[in-house]
Design a protein that fits this description.
- The N terminus is likely disordered.
- The chain has twelve helices and 14 strands.
- The longest helix is centred in the N-terminal third of the chain and has 53 residues.
- Helix content is about 55%, strand content about 20%.
- It is of the alpha+beta class and about 475 residues long.
- Bound molecules: adenosine-5'-diphosphate.
- Adenosine-5'-diphosphate binds next to helix 9 and helix 11.
Amino acid sequence: MEAGIGKFRFKINRSIRTELLVIICLVGIVPQLIIGLVFLRNYERQSVESRIRLVRNQCLIISDHLYTSGYLDAADNEIIDSELAQLSNLYDGRVMIINSDLKIIKDTYSLSEGKYMISAEVIKGLSGESASTYDGNYHYIEIITPISSGRDTGEYVGVMLTSVSTSETDSIINRLRRLFTVAVAAASAVVIGIAVFVATKTVGQLRKVSTAIDNINEGFGEEEIEDNPYKEMAQINEAFNQLLQRMKNLDSSRGEFVANVSHELKTPITSIKILAESLTAQSDVPNEIYREFMDDIITEVDREDKIINDLLSLVKMDRAGSNLVIEKCDMEVMIEGIIKRLSPIAQKAKVDIIFETIRPVVAEVDITKLSLALTNIIENGIKYNHEGGMVKVTLDSEPMMFVVIVEDTGMGIPEEDLPHIFERFYRVDKSHSRDIGGTGLGLSIARGAVIMHKGAIKVDSRMGEGTRFDIKIPISYIVTPQEEHDE
Ligand code: ADP
């Protein structure tokens, strides 16, 4: 993540470990806190409400007695006094009886008798309105109970003002609060412990992978990353191991290729050296021998030249598809051109070439590369044939694709060699192939060119009967998103 203030930009490296830790802690602790606080609030509200209900019921009973006993006139009745005293003792509170002149005629604390109480609640109480208020700070409830002059008269002769303590409820709530704090602290400690464990373990697994990658990068070993019990990590490991395997394969195929190239290039040079040395070793070499040896040397030079040219073509095929020079091309004209160029070789080998166009095609292709591919395949049909044999080339088209079939009546390819013939330097019969000028690169060049055109090449062969190559290529060149991006 990048953050910046004005010109100054700085990079924040987020840590999976910290983020995991914070998330687990938040998910584990915050809900506990919310649930606990809601529970405590609810408990407090319910206990205050039930206390108000309880005290109000008592007050209603006493307020009835107050009127019927005429207490408001004289404030002198032992039974009522004891009822009031009992009420205030029971709820650890204070009861004041106020008459319609707002004069306090009875105070269970005996502090305010004879004084006047002028408050909005009391005045409202005299008009019949009951009220209750809870003061959480001072821990008490105040209840106003109007004293009626009889049932359904609608007249009120006084007010009973009762204050009761809620300290008992408060102490329970405080105890619960302490208990809750301890419980949340203990649970939070467990959650933090789990968070640290999970975050460290997860990051540990990632570190293992990154250390293994570092080790391989630094060349300490080429071991694969060991198996991981976690599915996601195992997937990363597997992907990495596959990549490593590919690298190893590439490395070994590169080594093999270099070894093959060196060998192939060395063979003609060795022959040239031997031929030249044997010439210089003799004095008075007859002219014919001299000429014969020189012809052999020229053949070997040509061979060296062919190998180098094939190698260069192969390197070009190995590059990305963006190297293709795509042009519209009449495939019939292209194939006719190839056959014309190859006809001297065919004549020499006494092999007939037949060309048939079933449906003419104009396709978007790289003319040079595709010509080279088809030349190699048709030339093979001639080379690996016998006198009086035949090579048949057929051009056809399917929806979106065109097809070139090259069939010969030649020697065929053994079944076990078929999967390898497109490999570089692979030759079924080395000496035979060399005798007829093969480098073992022709088919891998052909395959490279076909693949660059997003096409496919298939081979079918029967020993002693002949071989058939089927090449299918899209008529319109398909540009991949990668190539579009490269452009
Ligand atoms: P080369 O330059 O040796 O011809 P290629 O890559 O063109 O190399 O072919 C690989 C091998 O496959 C050849 O050496 C040959 O043994 C075999 N091969 C290719 N085409 C044919 C064919 N039409 N008939 C028989 N064998 C073939």
